[in-house]
Amino acid sequence: MELKFILESILFSAQQPLSPKELKDLFAGAVEHSEDSAIKLLKKTSLDAISAALEDLARDHEQAQRSYRLVCVAGSWQFVSQPEFAPWIKALVGHKSRPPRLSQPALETLAIIAYRQPITRAEIEQVRGVAVDGVMQTLLERSLVTQLGRAEVIGRPITYGTTDAFLEYFGIKNLDDLPAADELRRIVVQKPESLLTVDPGLATAPPEQLTMQDGGNGQAAAPQNPTEAGSSSVEAEPVSTNRLAHAKAKPENS
């Protein structure tokens, strides 16, 4: 028996897409159901041979122009009907509701992740120029993106990438099938610099940039040199807000 016809019979009967690895495992399991020596030989079929046979079978069905075709989505193979026959199939099995379409911001964010993964949230925001908190939550909830790990930079932010559900959503075999987007890949993203500390709640800017602003917290900045404060003494008693307002309104003595 020819390999591609065996694969065709398996995929025709399968209830879900199957990867070449899963098909190879089925070849090994078939030995338990037959004493035929030819079936035992097929147990040693390589993954490359299975993949080549699947590609050949897909071309056969494409050239035959049947109502269905063999496709590979997210690394797994399955038979699917041609889109033009959808009305009759929906009448037979009913219409399966799909999640709402992705918004334009979600699609833009997803494209950045797909072409530049692994990528951190801060890097995504650098490319888009806006915050992506809400959009990222939507993509994570729909399992279109996932956490891949942590970047080897200060703070070790989480990195994100696409999932198999992303490939299934767009009906592509792998990321190599994405349209060319060289311009998106060429956008320069500034990597985080080495900071003073990464502990939460502590300053992360260099010390020389940490200056107290006058009036920032309702108090005046302390003078760096005692002589700059003038010859008058500083009253130690705390002054209430009303007294400060009254003093401000009182004209100074000449």
The total count of strands amounts to: 5
Strand order of the largest sheet: 3-5-4
Q: How many angstroms separate the termini?
A: 113 Å
CATH class of the domain at 3-93: Mainly Alpha
Poorly predicted residue ranges: 194-207, 212-254
* CATH architecture tag of the domain at 3-93: Orthogonal Bundle
Number of helical regions? 11
User: Using only CA atoms, what is the Rg?
Assistant: 33 Å
Main β sheet profile = 3 strands, antiparallel
CATH-defined fold name of the domain at 3-93? Arc Repressor Mutant, subunit A
H and E string: HHHHEEHHEHHEEHHH
Structural class: mainly alpha
Morphology: globular
Strand % is 5-15%
Characteristics:
mainly alpha; 5 strands; single chain; 11 helices; 10% strand; Arc Repressor Mutant, subunit A; 3-stranded antiparallel beta sheet; disordered C terminus; globular; 254 residues; two-stranded antiparallel sheet
Topology:
Layout: H1 3-13, H2 20-30, H3 37-42, H4 47-64, E1 68-73, E2 76-81, H5 86-93, H6 104-116, E3 119-120, H7 121-128, H8 133-141, E4 145-150, E5 158-162, H9 164-170, H10 182-186, H11 241-249
Antiparallel strand pairs: 1-2, 3-5, 4-5
Helix pairs in contact: 1-4, 6-8
